[in-house]
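Reopening this one. Same input as before:
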Amino acid sequence: MSRFGRAAVIPTARLELRPLLPGHAPEMAEVLSDPALHTFTGGAPLAPAALRARYERLAAGSPDPQVAWCNWVLHAAAERRLVGTVQATVSGPAADRTAEVAWVVGVPWQGRGYATEAARALVGWLTARSVTQVIAHIHPRHVASAAVARAAGLVPTSHRQGGEVRWRAVVAGGGP
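Same output, byte for byte:
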């Protein structure tokens, strides 16, 4: 998993995906403060201190050497601020490497295509690192997140996990 030990900066047309750091917590607490973000995922917004503790754990990396945690904040150039996050948990042997991905964009910045732009960049980054499949789990009523998944090349499957639909893309020459 050494190729995934650290998330790299990923530039896009309007965003810069920056590796997540504990110092991002104060600004991200504001970005993620709207309870509406938890409609489909449950939970509640975290206070800055709790978010910092979470980011410290994420930045330290997975305790399992066979699993890589790659997390980014989304910096929007036009906004001159952070607007969301994307993440990938990468696991499996090189011949069958899987990335489970997720994204979130703060409510004030939704509807601008930031999640789609970031998800496409993330899938491209993962593909360049020989990930064979990308998976996302999306609530069946979360239309916006399903549109992001589709735009990033994922398709819904018949598999359900925790009430969510598994979306999947086979990439980098992976099997069916």
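So the earlier flakiness isn't reproducible anymore. For the record, Residues 2-170 form a domain with the Aminopeptidase fold (CATH 3.40.630.30).
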